[in-house]
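Summary of Year 1 activities. Much of the first year was spent building the evaluation harness for sequence design. The harness presents a backbone, in tokenized form, and records the residue chosen at every position. We chose the following record to illustrate the format because it has been used consistently in internal testing since the harness was completed.
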């Protein structure tokens, strides 16, 4: 069976509808996928570019590493991440809790050509760049990783430490 973008999009739309009750029931506890009225998740929420206090450039390379891979931000801070693929193969940067990233990794293994259209994810062809604007509303750890098959397992991951205000 050949999967097209439309087929994959339809599959995930149906899966989202089927699990929306469970996601709603999970609420906003750490690790839950629930959103509050402001669009906030366990790791923060999409930021507004004009409110970004700084820009951090992250490079993704074929040695399966991010540079930098450890970042520090302050609770409440909005950061513009400029993400550059300096490699020769497709890479991505996905923000999430470790649990969310591992769950998404399993989906990517089944659908390696999955396209993302979410504010905390960017997938880039070789030589391209993109951006993520994110507001870190909660102190703690936010993880990021490349979930292309084999990349996470090779060590393509990083962490953002969100310090208290």
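For this record, the design step produced the sequence shown next.
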């Amino acid at each position: 069976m050949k999967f097209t973008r439309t087929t994959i999009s339809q599959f995930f739309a149906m899966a989202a509808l089927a699990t929306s009750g469970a996601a709603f029931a999970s609420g906003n506890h750490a690790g839950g996928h629930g959103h509050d009225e402001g669009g906030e998740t366990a790791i923060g929420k999409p930021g507004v570019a004009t409110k970004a206090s700084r820009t951090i450039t992250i490079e993704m390379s074929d040695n399966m590493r991010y540079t930098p891979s450890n970042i520090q931000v302050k609770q409440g801070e909005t950061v513009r991440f400029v993400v550059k693929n300096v490699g020769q193969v497709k890479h991505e940067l996905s923000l999430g809790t470790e649990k969310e990233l591992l769950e998404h990794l399993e989906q990517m293994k089944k659908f390696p050509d999955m396209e993302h259209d979410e504010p905390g994810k960017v997938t880039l062809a070789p030589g391209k760049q993109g951006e993520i604007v994110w507001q870190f509303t909660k102190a703690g750890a936010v993880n990021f990783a490349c979930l292309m098959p084999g990349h996470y397992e090779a060590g393509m991951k990083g962490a953002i430490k969100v310090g208290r205000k």
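Residues 1-37 have pLDDT under 50 and may be disordered. Quantitative recovery figures across the full test set are reported in Table 2.
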